[in-house]
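Re: beginner question about structure tokens

> Can someone show what the tokenized structure looks like for a real chain? I only ever see the sequence side.

Sure, here's an example I had lying around. Input first:
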Amino acid sequence: MKKLFLFLMMLFACNVLHAQSIISDEVTSDGLRMVIGETVAARDLKDKQVFFVGLSALQKDSIEIWMLSVKVIEWGAYRINKGNILLLKTMNDEVIQLQADGDYDATVRNVHTEPFVYSDYSVTAHYPITKEDILKLCGGVKKIRQEVSLGETHDKDYKKDKIGAILTTEVNLLSNALKEKKSIYDGF
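And the corresponding structure tokens:
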């Protein structure tokens, strides 16, 4: 019993210690820089649909373009079309509306074989967002609604903020990375 208790404590400690990171920081020959943050689960353990969120930024000279990535895992295949809407309600009831920048199809994420054969699917869509809207979301998100194909939506209500905490870490990581100048010649 004591070993089981210690194992569970270590498992929870490892889960809490997971740190978000930058997974890519590349510069092209024409000076376009792309910094991509990790996509992190914003979920409760009982969720049927799991939302993952992350940020990325494009920079050229003094121009920055920010993107919010939203990944959903679900039991059925679906599609997110260019222009489909993502609604995020902040803790102070302000609604931020974003539109998908392209067409995204779900892919088979995993095939389960017990007790019967079934698959789950995932799709990651990208939404252009201003840094001001990111900072508003950092204050907390209590509801998210993602429009998908066939007029359906994926909805999730949060009792406690999950998304704002993730975005706070991501925007700080990416902003600090963008402050450092980088070129294609670095490390050559």
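Each token stands for a local structural state, so reading them left to right follows the chain. DSSP finds three helices and 13 strands in the chain.
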